[in-house]
Amino acid sequence: MITGGTGFVGSNIVRVFMETHGADVLVPTNIHVPTNAAYECEPCDLTDPAAVRASVERFRPDVIVHAAILNDYDRLYRDRHAAWDSYVGATRNVVAAANVLGAKVVLVSTDWVFDGTQGPATEATPPNPINLYGVMKMASELVVTEGADNGAVARVSGVNGVHWARPHTPRVQDPGFGYFVASIVDSLRAGKRFTVWEADDINMVATPSLATESAEMMWRIAELDRVGIFHCCGRDSVSRRELALAACDIFDLDTRLLDFGPPDVDVMHGAPIPFDTSLDASATAEALGYELPSLSELLSKFRVHYEQGVLA
């Protein structure tokens, strides 16, 4: 069972689990139910414990990957109750149902549980979030690590890749690293200039992930029955400028179309954003028997996804 399976990260988990590993997948959702999906999909309000329990009891999954979030940064601050229910409450419901059925829970979390001064943070570094999104994810991590009979936390960072459920969703740069490479590729291939944001109040350093590689690491967590906290990211930590130049190199783009400057004030949320969220994933690599890919390897695989629509 993959919650949030119609979202960006979730759609990559679905595809890797099904195509690479032959898993039978159920996607419970209360947002978007595809009519032609290759997996089983059903309406389910994750904030309703009875609905979650019924869905889990019917499908009887071996593993629940909990990737669903309230993907509305402004609403997190406008409606704290909805935010708490959608993150912490939903995680509690998933964990409670999984415990009854004996299923493993893998929570998808984030490098934003750190305050931006701790990099490179290891799996054992204590979190210290500075915004509400990070707080919600940290609280959800505690629900899993303290409450799940068989639980793991899979932190991702600077996630890039194809949104397989909605591949034509407009990509835009934001104060984090997500969709950053796709935004650059879309703009420069159309002959448009692209300003790489540089400022002290945005996420300027991270350890980029490719969504399909993060999904593969989550599969290994489940297959090897690992518990605890894992960093499902790449090997290299880079700045936004370094990532932009590397993307241009791998995708054969004209760097003369790049500019560097402050972010668009219209898309800044006003909440604090961690500056350096770089992660150390060496303990995860050892636990999973996984060789962390370099940035160039991640971008090369992403180019295959982007241009050919297939998994590398």
Nutshell version of this structure?
This protein is α/β, with parallel strands linked by helices.
What does this structure look like?
By secondary structure, this protein is an alpha/beta fold. It has a domain at 2-162 and 208-235 and 278-296: Rossmann fold, CATH 3.40.50. The chain is built from 10 helices and 13 strands. It has helices at 8-20, 49-59, 73-78, 80-101, 132-147, 180-189, 211-223, 240-251, 282-288, 295-308, and strands spanning 2-3, 26-29, 40-43, 63-66, 104-110, 151-156, 159-160, 194-197, 205-206, 209-210, 228-231, 238-239, 258-261. It has a 5-stranded parallel sheet with strand order 1-4-5-6-11, sandwiched between helices. The chain has a two-stranded parallel ribbon with strand order 2-3. A two-stranded parallel ribbon has the order 7-10. Helix 5 (132-147) links the parallel strand 5 (104-110) and strand 6 (151-156). Helix 1 (8-20) packs across helix 7 (211-223) and helix 4 (80-101) packs parallel to helix 5 (132-147). The chain is globular and about 55 Å long. The mean pLDDT is 94.
Notable traits:
312 residues; alpha/beta; Rossmann fold; five-stranded parallel beta sheet; two-stranded parallel ribbon; 10 helices; 13 strands; 40% helix
